[in-house]
Design a protein that fits this description.
The structure is a homodimer. By secondary structure, chain A is an alpha/beta fold. The radius of gyration of chain A is 16 Å and the shape is globular. The first copy, chain A, is built from seven helices and eleven strands. In chain A, strands 5-6-4-3-7-1-8-11-10 form a nine-stranded mixed sheet. Chain A has a two-stranded antiparallel ribbon with strand order 2-9. In chain A, helix 4 links the parallel strand 3 and strand 4. At the A-B interface, strand 10 and strand 11 of A face strand 10 and strand 11 of B.
Chain lengths: 206, 206
């Protein structure tokens, strides 16, 4: 059985998933948005920050999201920003399919992450990711603008949002340009923790 | 002890609380946004639809929100739209302070709703509402554009959102123009029901 196609992001209460400019990426708003992630044991271990960290539901959800993912898909902007920022042992540990016009040989990193550069669009990237993932799921990793192309094309099965108690006021909106006439949501799970509310929806065509 | 100042709205997952145009107010999106309300016993009884209806947490929350409210404040647009649409026995059953340039005598409706027309701004309207509410709370009732003036002016203590599993794509955004440099949120409660997730936040100045 083929896996699901999903995305999983942290979103501000007013609908933003990233600050306006990449210069602010490590800025205050982004830190507040992601604040629930940093103390988690799974996150600390994956960055090699040593032992320790929280082990509640927030941690379980991070680990489960990682473990279900057999391949990642990302846009060129996320790759370009990450190429500089990720540690050598990039944090995906799966094949990653980058939608880009750049022609480039696969780029293999230690720890099981290999970036493949796909030049003929989002559907081909997804097809290749499905093949690579086998029975596991495909995660649309980002960035902000790339994610929405998939639900708008009818290519997302479900998604999860960690809704953070912060207001951005400006930035990259997750649902900017969503085709609301096409995308209907069925709530699957709403699970509050002390830090965020984890929301999961199945996507249906209207 | 003085009551709190709060608002309570239904919001789509992408941050909208009303469709773009009033013509669509009874349209499909708005119906989906409010779908959790219609089957509730409290709602049915308040519209005189007879007995029956659901009695779970969604119903409790509607009733509690009504009971805590000693006075309402609303903008001119909400009043103008409602003046036509509300039943004679208007659904507030408290003094209502309408922020407007129109000079007009108080308008008393059967059932305890009296509309007072306040011509000198949101702070005066709130002051009068506080006096009328006594120890009970003041609800900023709407509409979409009026609500946000209060948190931006540092005049909201807390708010509640019933987050509905629907995407609007366009319309009136609750947080459009929020002063994010001023408004910080502290999560108080996140309570999922099968229909929506009820979120409550305390507002703090940054």
């Amino acid at each position: 059985m083929a896996g699901k196609v999903f995305f999983s992001v942290s979103m501000s209460l007013d609908g933003f998933i990233a600050p306006e400019s990449p210069d602010e990426l490590m800025g205050k708003q982004w830190m507040e948005l992601q604040r629930w992630v940093f103390p988690q044991r799974f996150f600390r271990a994956s960055l090699g920050l040593g032992g320790g960290g929280e082990e509640g539901r927030d941690n379980d959800i991070l680990r489960e999201t990682f473990e279900r993912t057999g391949a990642n898909v990302m846009g060129k902007r996320m790759f370009d920003a990450g190429e500089q920022a990720w540690p050598e042992d990039a944090p995906f540990h799966t094949p990653v399919f980058v939608v880009t016009h750049e022609k480039r040989d696969p780029w293999e990193r230690p720890g099981g992450t290999t970036f493949h550069f796909v030049n003929d669009g989002i559907e081909t990237a997804l097809e290749q990711a499905r093949d690579a993932a086998g029975e596991r799921d495909v995660r649309i990793a980002g960035g902000g603008a790339a994610i929405l192309q998939y639900p708008n094309a009818g290519l997302i099965d479900e998604f999860s949002i960690a809704l953070s108690p912060v207001l951005f006021g400006s930035g990259v909106r997750l649902f900017e340009g969503v085709d609301a006439s096409r995308v209907a949501l069925e709530p699957v799970l709403s699970e509050p923790t002390p830090r965020v509310t984890h929301l999961t929806y199945t996507v249906r065509e209207r």
